[in-house]
Amino acid sequence: MNRKFLSAKSAVIAAVFSVFPVLLFAQALPAENSQGLDYEGKAIVAVLPLAGGETEMIRRFHEATMAAVAGLEKYSPRDVYIPAGGEIPTDMPPVRSLVPSVRYALTGGVYPGSDAGEYYLQLWLWDMAGSTMIYTDDLVYDDIDGALETLPGLVEWLFSHIHIVIIEAPEADAWQDPFFMLGMRAGLSPRWYVNPDEKSPGASALNFEGAVFGGLRLTGLLSFQLEILLTNDTLVYRGLDLISDPPVMENEKFTAFSLTIPLLLKANFRAGLFRLSPLAGFYLALPLGKSRYRINNDAAESYSWSFSVPLGFTLGFEGAVQYGPGRIFTGLRYGVDFGTIAINDAVTLDGKEVQYRRHSFSLYLGYEFGFYNGKKLGGS
């Protein structure tokens, strides 16, 4: 076998095995990022050799400076090699090619003082993101050992002038309503009246309603609300009076006022400046006075009336926005009675008892104030 071939083959194998550990080691090293931070998140500081002719003093100061920077615990010092004959920067920032991927740099020098045996150490701290000086100061000494004891304080003083502006993302506005809310609302309520014998409403009317309410916040999401609602119902039947000769068209009109007390559970969500609140609950309905009855333009009569079951169910949705010291809101609700309303001793033209169940929608506008949280309503 050709010995030259073996020699060449051996050389290739040796080169591969010599390079492979290096590549493997290089991949295992944590990468430093472009922001001048090491793998632990510490800012990298390049510590350059000190200028001057006092070789032994410079060596001891350089070692002590490296240790002082590491002792600050927020920075990672890096020793910088300057080729023989190369110029050591002092009062100018080092060029980027000399200290790549560092955040800060320390330069300086040791110089003779004005008195015999006196020296001074001057250090410059540079921000390499913009190659600008952060701060400079010096240490005058005549005893190298005493100067080395003072050096960590000088380094800490220089680095104390670093002001890092941290731009934080604004916190989510975790607002919630006050503990207690008080308000009022008013609006229109289209209503449909269904007789027990009917499959569809036989009468309808557009009524006015108004309410005052108080709310109690249970959590940041849920609240209870109790209302006192005043409204009226207008039930109109139209038909022929067959007793008259000739028959005439008659309008029978029943009017009744009632007090409704809803107890609601609201879920309050925020979408930008708006509060969106789905709601649901039950209400208690109470008659107010007697029902007035009138046929055409005849004199009115009065009848007592009552609910067979004075309860009902309601659900809806509200939207509110900050306006002045409180919130203005609007809403839409649907409600239905569990029982029927009976007007006692009253009969229609066709001889039927007057009974009906109410189905209603409410479209309203209102305003509310908040209390007991030390802030304006909706504040954060």
Describe it for me?
There is one protein chain. The chain is α+β, with helices and mostly antiparallel strands and 380 residues long. The protein has three helices and 17 strands. The strands form two sheets. It has an eight-stranded antiparallel barrel. Strands 2-1-3-4-5 form a five-stranded mixed sheet, with helices on one face. The longest helix is centred in the N-terminal third of the chain and has 26 residues. The two termini are 87 Å apart. The N terminus and C terminus are likely disordered.
Q: Which characteristics define this entry?
A:
single chain, 380 residues, alpha+beta, 5-stranded mixed sheet, 3 helices, 16% helix, rod-shaped, disordered N terminus, disordered C terminus
Question: Could you provide a short overview of the structure?
Answer:
The protein has helices at 3-28, 55-71, 144-159, and strands at residues 43-47, 75-79, 104-112, 119-127, 132-141, 180-194, 203-217, 222-241, 248-267, 269-271, 274-295, 301-303, 305-307, 311-323, 326-337, 341-347, 353-371. The chain is an alpha+beta fold.
